Structure formats: C-alpha cells, structure tokens
From TrEMBL, chain A:
CDD domains: TM_PBP1_transp_AraH_like. This is Autoinducer 2 import system permease protein LsrD. Keywords: Cell inner membrane, Cell membrane, Membrane, Transmembrane, Transmembrane helix, Transport. The keyword Cell inner membrane applies.
UniProtKB/TrEMBL annotation, chain B:
It is a peripheral membrane protein. The keyword Nucleus does not apply. It is found in: Cell membrane. InterPro entries: AAA+_ATPase (IPR003593), ABC_carbohydrate_import_ATPase (IPR050107), ABC_transporter-like_ATP-bd (IPR003439), ABC_transporter-like_CS (IPR017871), P-loop_NTPase (IPR027417). It holds the Pfam family ABC_tran. It comes from Streptomyces guryensis. This is Sugar ABC transporter ATP-binding protein. GO terms for cellular component: plasma membrane. The lineage of its organism: Bacteria, Bacillati, Actinomycetota, Actinomycetes, Kitasatosporales.
Amino acid sequence: MPESLTRAVRWDTVVGALLVVLLLLSFSTVDGFGNALNLSFLIGNTLPIALIALPMTLLVVSGEIDLSVASTAGLSGAVMGKLWNDGMAIETIIPLCLLLGVVCGLVNGLLVTRLGLPSLAVTIGTLAAYRGIAQIVLGSDAVTDFPSQYLDFAAGRIGNTFIPQALLPFVVLLAIAVVVLHATPFGRSLFAIGANEEAARFAGIRVRRHKLILFTVTGLMASLTGIFWALHYASARYDNATGLELSIVAAVLLGGIDFDGGRGTLGGAIAGVFLLGALQNVMSLLNVSAQSQIVVTGVLLVISVLGPRVARQISVARAARSAG
Amino acid sequence: MTHPSDTGPAPVLALEDISKSFGAVRALRDVSLELFPGEVHALAGENGAGKSTLIKTLAGVHRPDAGRVLLDGEPVVFHGPGDARDAGIAVIYQEPTLFPDLSIAENIFMGRQPRRALGRIDHKATHAATLALMQRLGVELDPDRPARGLSIADQQIVEIAKALSFEARVLIMDEPTAALTGSEVARLFGVVRTLREQGAAVLFISHRLEEMFEICQRVTTLRDGAWISSEPIDGMTEDDLVRRMVGRDLDELYPKQDVEPGQVALSVRRLTREGVFTDVSFDVRHGEIVGLAGLVGAGRTEVARAVFGIDRWDAGEVEVQGRRLTNGAPSTAMAAGLALVPEDRRAQGLVMDMSIERNIGLTGLRTTVRAGLVDRGAERSRSLDWAVKLQVKYARIADTVNTLSGGNQQKVVLAKWLATGPRVLIVDEPTRGIDVGTKAEVHRLLSELAADGVAVLMISSDLPEILGMADRVLVMHEGRLTAEIPRAEATEETVMAAATGRAAA
Ligand SMILES: Nc1ncnc2c1ncn2[C@@H]1O[C@H](COP(=O)(O)OP(=O)(O)OP(=O)(O)O)[C@@H](O)[C@H]1O
Ligand SMILES: [Mg+2]
C-alpha cells in the first residue's frame, strides 16, 4: 500500500475507533442515548451533514472548498416553501429547486475556474448572497403544510427499527461517491489535482472542468439537503441550516481529508461526520447549551486540521527511527 | 596540478565510515571521503548510488546511522543545514528549494538580509548585493521578481547565487549544471576556479563526464552506496570512470540509427506568444529526431509548452498528423498523439506524494479503464512494464516517488509519457540528472522510437547530446528560430554561433 494511503488509513482508523468508543460509552453511561427514538434523531439530524459531506470531501481532496452549501440548502428550502404557498405542485417544485442548486453551484464553479478566484473567498461571498436571496424570497414566513406522504418519508423510520427511511437513499449516494472518488479515473484525477495541480494539467487532466463539475454537484446535493431539511423538520424558513457549513467542514477535516488537498478517504470523512453527529447528540442529552456545542465544534475543527498532521509526523519519525 | 595526499594539508572536511539506510534501502555503506582546501573533488556514481544522500549527511540534513563527520579534524554533529552553514559549508541541493512567493533577492538572503537601523531590512543593499552576484554569474535576472515561474535553469542559478552569497570554505554542489547550457556552465566554472584559488574546497556532482574532467582534480566513485575509489582524475579516461561507476564497459552513448523520414507529423506555423517567442515555424517528420538548441531563456521550453497546450498562443497554428490542435488544450493534443516530457519533474512531471505506479498511471486514466473504473491490474502492468524498461531503481512500485533518487524520478516522468505510445514526442531535457549508463539507454530508446516512426523533438542544454542524436538542429535565440542546421553541418561552433546570435542563417 502506498505510504500516503497507509497514513491516511491510520487516521481513518483513529476516527473510526473514536466513534466506536463514543458510542459504547454513550450506550452505557448516557441516559436516553440507546433508545430507538434518540438513535433515529441522531441519524436524522446527522443526515444533512452527511449528504453534503459527500461532495465536500471530493471538493477538498481536489484542493477547493464550498462554504455556501448551507445557504444553498436554505435557499432551496425557501424557494420550495414559496412555490408551495403559491400553489405549485410539489412534483414540479422539487426538480425546480434541484435545478436552482445546480445554478448556485455553477455560479461558484464559474467564479472559481473562469476568474481564477480562490474558492474560500468566492463561497464566503455566495454564502451571504444565497442566504440574502432566501430571505427576500420567503421573508420571515415558515411554511409547514407540505404533503404528508413527503413529510412522512423525510421523518419516518423503517418499520419498528430506529433506522430513518432517508438513510437508504443516503447509503446509495455514499456508495456512488466512494466508487467515484476511489475507483474511477475522475476520482484519481482529483487526488492529482489536489496534490499538484500543475502536474495534473501537464498530464492532460482537465482541471477546470473537473472543478466545475464538483462545484455543480455540490450545489445539487446542497439543494437536495435543503429540501430534505424542510420536509424532515416540516418547516421551510429562510434561515434553515444556518451555520451547517461549519459542521460539514469540521467533520470532513476530522475524517482526515487534508485541507491542502490530495489526501484522504471517504470512509474517514463519513466516520468524522457521525463522530461529530453523535457528539452533538450526546451533548444535547447532557443539556450542554447550544453555544457551548458550537465551541466544541470549533475546537474539533482545530484538532481535525492538526490531528492528521501530528499523526503523520509521528509515523514519519517512527519510520526514520526504525530505519536507524 | 595534482593533489595533496598524506603529506599535504589536512582535509577541511572528512567523512569516516558513514552508513545511512532508509528502511530496507542501504543508501550508504561505510563511505569515507576527504575534502582538501584548494581542490575541486568530483563525486561520481549512477542514479541512486548515494551521492545526494552523502551530501545531505555532510550538510546535516540526514543524521548518519554510523560513522563520523570531521571538520578540520574534529568530529562534528550538524543538527541541521543551519549548523553546516554556520561552519562555512555552502550546499546547492539537487532539487531547487526556493520560496515561490519571495523575490529572488529575498530567497538568496533569506534570514540574512543586510539590516539598517532598528533591524529594518535594507532592501537597497539586498538588491545591490543580488545584482553583483548575478553579474558574477553572468546572468540577467531581476532581483525583485518572485521565484514563482522561474525556469529550472534560472532556479538553479538562484541556488548557486545563494551558495555563493556567503564566504564558504566548503562549497558542495549537487548537479548544479544539469539544466545549464555551455556558456552558463563556463561562467559557473570560472567562479568555482576563483574560489578554489582562494583556498575553498569544492565537492562537485554531475552526470556530464566532460565537466568532471574539466574542473576537478580528484574523483570519488560510489556504486550502490559503497565506496569504490578515490583518486586523481588526471590520467583517467572517460571509460575508466564509467567502468568504476557502472562496473562494466558502456554501450555507445549516442546509438543513433539512420531512418528515412516519412510524412510531416508535427507542423508548427508562425507560432507567436507575445513577449515570449515570435513567428516560430518548423516541421518534424515521422522517424526524425529534431534537436532544439539555444541558450537558457531563448524560449525553447515556452514553444514546447504552447505546442502542447499548457500556455495559449496568440497567433499561428499547430498540426499533429494533419489534425489542427486547439489552443490551450493538452487533452486534445494528447488525443492527437502528442506527448510532452516537461523540464521540471517536481513541479510539472510528478505528484511527489503519489506512488510510482499511479504517477505513471496518470497519463493512462483514459485508456486503462474497465466499465468506467480504473483497471488497477492494467495500470500496474503498464507501470511495471515501463519502470522495468527504463531501469527505474525502486523498492516497491507502490512507493511514493519522493523516495526515489533524482535520476530515478526523471525516469518515472519519461515512463509516464512513453507509456502513452505517442506518435509525436517532445522531450524537454530528457536526460537531466540521468547517469551515463541510463543516458545511453534513453538515447537508444529515442532512436528506436524514431525508427518506429515516432517524430521526436528534443530540447536539450547538453550540446553533445543534441549533436549526437539529432537529424536536424533548430536553434533559437531570443524568442526566434535563428537557424536550421542539418546533421552533417551541425558542430558546437555552428550551433553556438546561432544560439548566441552571432550568425544569421
Ligand atoms: N527519503 C528517502 N526515503 C527512502 N529512500 C531514499 C530516500 N532518499 C534516498 N533514498 C534511496 O537511497 C538511494 C540513494 O539515493 P540518492 O538520492 O543518494 O542517489 P543519487 O546518487 O543522488 O542519485 P541521482 O544521480 O539519481 O541523483 C536510492 O536508492 C534512493 O531511492
Ligand atoms: Mg542525487
């Protein structure tokens, strides 16, 4: 196995192990953690992060980032609420909202690839812009009366289990993302682009096209998440999913995706997502305040940037010593 | 002048029974070396013989597993390159290590800038000192331009200037001339001779044998990490030296086959990129090897980049096997059968953190595919095939390329492009940093490719290589093609005359 991969796997394993430890601890010590309702809450609340983490992982591997995803999700939800209020059929509204997400992602992608602007700056800008548009569209209304079969799907569980119905489509999307990143020429190119963009270009890889596709898919997934959010919580408001980008980026980095690009695995990213989700769930059960939870997320963000690097340095040092 | 033995002056720097391993790779085994003041000492050996490792051990980058480093007869332990520098040892590493966002002057005087009152950096003095260094080396580089985007040759010049910028007693140079042409090398050697006369000791690595004979007094040879010999170079022949390095006699260095040229394969018409090169037109036929010569900065690399689609051109057109190429699109150039082996292996040729296998695989992502997925079996056998053909020295094909020696990295870049089965091949410094044995191998390969009908355009700063391999030599001077010289008439004199603009053709 290549050295870079073994190192990444090691961090993956660390995160996976942490997740297992946290789950075991919580089952045995935290009241109310293990009951089916709470577990379904945990998964349901984590799903929006997990959904967007899929394309975000690919984006970070290629050396870019999208901070506007939560605003795109909010905008999609707001537009969905507005059009529903205006009497449009939900079957028409959903494709329209997805299309809107594609447009949002395309705008980010074009700004980054055509104008050569850094994605961090571009998407901080569109983060504000998309949220602003959402507020213009829906104002302070909350739309709640979506058709019940949709609400039931987004909030319902499979039979008597704790597993949300929406987990199944997510698992399918996860499988697709894993294959795309780790087994296709497209995914292989993303690692090359993230590690050395110039060498990727010299190898005939269409760097800008790859990035444009990624931003567009990210927009699409963000709007899908926005639709899911509005249905899951039966509430379309302009401020849905505010601040979610922080959790997504924290989770992805926590999962060992290198912020500088070129390194990481989707398995690690998803382990990071559920570690963060479980942690937030446990904190809520223990009545930790929302503000403190944000602090914890922030601290995790710092650890997640440092952690893989420290782990890597340790393993390099160990290799050097064993060589001696 | 021959050199000091036991009765002469004491060595300023010496290695005693040094060993160094990286995992299972034993890069140095009980190697000893003495450097005397006033000598230029060559370090010879094949790719992966351990030359760079030895230098890094001398400079405090690597800690030896066993053995001692002696400075003026006293054992020393350098804890890093800073220690070595403080002891008066200047090192030019094989791979340039400039900070891309800093200016040339800042790179040279990193951390040692002349100061004014209150510790403010004296930019004027820094600028002037840099200009003086550039003059000494006979190059025109703006001290204030950032290092980003400098050609490999210019980066090497800056590294050399950095090493010369403080009074060193010991100057160590790992392949400083690899990307330089004749006149820059001559300047550098002038500077080295002056330093030597002032009593400095110089350790010099190059894969160009004639350079060792020109500038060095003694030579130490390494083979597979082991010390083979240390002796005066006077009286040795190139064959003697090669035999010590390789352990056998060498095949012919320029095994050029005569091939009847076929149809035009690459046609470049009035190509212009403003401010870089102007009105460049030439053809390369199937079966032909065309050399592209010129001084550093003449625009050879830039033409190659534009033809392949890395940079856009402003006017003109390019055809490959009758197909017009799209401006600025490497993927269509590749689809038309074009390949470019770039000059800067670290920045352009390789993803240093990726395995050998995947680096070679990068150019085959479109072809080694099954049902939309990367066919790992096919990728591995494609990579192995070429790694073996080019005799890349590695432990495992899945190791990252940054564990390879410089010359072996270069072979991976070649492998990566030859694996695409190109019909038109542009090679920019194909043998930069490659040892003589493998150089002959690469030349044989290029010659065979040509015999198979591949059109080869070869950019090289190694004039003997151009003269030995090319059917025709194109010469560039200041962004224009100034001469086209058939093989029969191509000599050092005719090519250099055109390259320096002394003769119009
Ligand atoms: N950091 C490293 N990790 C593992 N192996 C290494 C490392 N650095 C060097 N090596 C190995 O040590 C051996 C000697 O390498 P070195 O770079 O000293 O060769 P060299 O003589 O300078 O060759 P070249 O002429 O190609 O520059 C090679 O087999 C190389 O693969
Ligand atoms: Mg070397």
